[in-house]
Amino acid sequence: MEARERAKKRLAIHEVLLAAAERRREVIEAVWDSANADEASLRLRELVDIPDGLSAQLILDQQIGLFTKEKRDELTAEISRLRSSSTVHPSDAEASAYDPTARS
């Protein structure tokens, strides 16, 4: 995998994790209400809009520390860095599913 593709995938991963952190209450509720991991994965895919090529397991494998403000700030900074780097094409960054600057 070339550097641009790795950076693009890393950007998508960070965006998914930040989206999950920003919607932490809904994420926890979706997992809590699920009968099993497969159902939780399906619910998370819909809730967080996980792009093709990534698994909801990415969220399920995270520790609760993902939901701290410090971690969310780190993810936001890394997303900004990846979007502004020369390895991620501007059209890739614009097409990203999650905008960390649009926090509610």
The rounded distance between the terminal residues' Cα atoms is 35 Å
Structural class, please? Answer: mainly alpha
| Series of secondary-structure elements, N-terminal to C-terminal | HHHHHH
| C-alpha Rg (nearest Å) | 14 Å
Mean pLDDT: 86
The portion of residues assigned to helices is 55-70%
- How many structurally independent domains? 1
The biggest sheet amounts to: none
Q: What is the assembly state of the chains in this entry?
A: single chain
Q: Compute the number of strand runs.
A: 0
Number of helices: 6
Keywords:
single chain; 104 residues; mainly alpha; disordered C terminus
Descriptive overview:
With 104 residues, the chain is an all-alpha fold. It has one domain. It has six helices and no strands. The longest helix is centred in the N-terminal third of the chain and has 20 residues, at 3-22. It is globular. The N and C termini lie far apart (35 Å).
Write the layout of secondary structure elements.
Layout: H1 3-22, H2 24-33, H3 37-48, H4 57-60, H5 69-84, H6 90-94
Helix pairs in contact: 1-2, 1-5, 2-3
